[in-house]
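retry 2 of 3: previous attempt timed out while embedding S-adenosylmethionine. Reduced batch size to 1 and resubmitted. Inputs unchanged:
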Amino acid sequence: MASTNIESHERNRASWNHAIVAHNSHKVDQHLFFKNKGSTLFREEMDLLGNLAGLSVCHLQCNCGQDTLSLVTTLGAENPVGIDISDTAVDFATQLAKDSGIDATFIRSDIFEYFNTAEPDQFDVVFASYGALNWLSSMQKYAAGVSKILKPGGRYCLVEFHPVGYIFNPDMVHEYPYSSAGEPIHSEDGVGDYVALSSTEDREVMPNLTYAEGIKDFKNSNPSTEFCWGLADVIGSMAETGLQLSHFKEYPYSNFYKIYKCMTPEKVKEGVRWCFDGPMLPLMYSICVKKPLLA
Ligand SMILES: C[S@@+](CC[C@H](N)C(=O)[O-])C[C@H]1O[C@@H](n2cnc3c(N)ncnc32)[C@H](O)[C@@H]1O
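retry 2 succeeded.
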């Protein structure tokens, strides 16, 4: 497997900085949404995380902080810590927390730099979701970092798009490897405007969060680099570092993100999930691993 690739991470930082402006241009009055105890979390991660009251919580690759704030409004987390490499994401998240009157701490950092400098054994719960792992250049370093910052007895919860779903392009042509074994996959187009591409006809991003036209036909001027991580890469790295698997599930739909052009939307209480009408394809998975208590 490849080692940490700071160059590709920094390229992604610039690409995310640009894309986030487009993403947020489609979501208006987000602070009012959170002041009214709104939540961007889906059932899958809520069930996995459970009640977070009284627990120390870290949200890795927190993007603009909407899910981080939802951990507070919905699951009772107190001052969760969100980490993200993007300057615009962390600035936005910090302002959104302030405007919403919600306590949360946001840190701008490459995840691997954060793991290097963070105090060990800090968090009861570490959480990541939806389009996180594909930006990271090493699963082994990721698993070791997660293990480092978890308290003994603490748990890591992940809800992620499935590597099988990622092998097809939007036209459902098999274009990408199931696992690239740490080899980078470059895109000159950079991070796209998946918020616009996943919008439904009734123009609701989430219940009570309306989709706005915002920036049209967004083109990112910064290329990006991704990595394909198969389930063996993810779960194998967790196991190698001593984390113990306590939950694993696959789902035949994709929350929020329209992966293929042919998908049809299905309304659920928390928002929209996108379905594929053909034979069952796993499109998301969730795992929970625990750090063993010290002997
Ligand atoms: C698709 S978003 C994840 C969405 C997130 N689950 C949420 O709560 O909205 C991916 C995020 O990963 C961040 N990211 C990418 N590479 C990173 C790295 N090396 N270190 C930290 N964050 C990174 C990006 O800036 C982006 O905000």
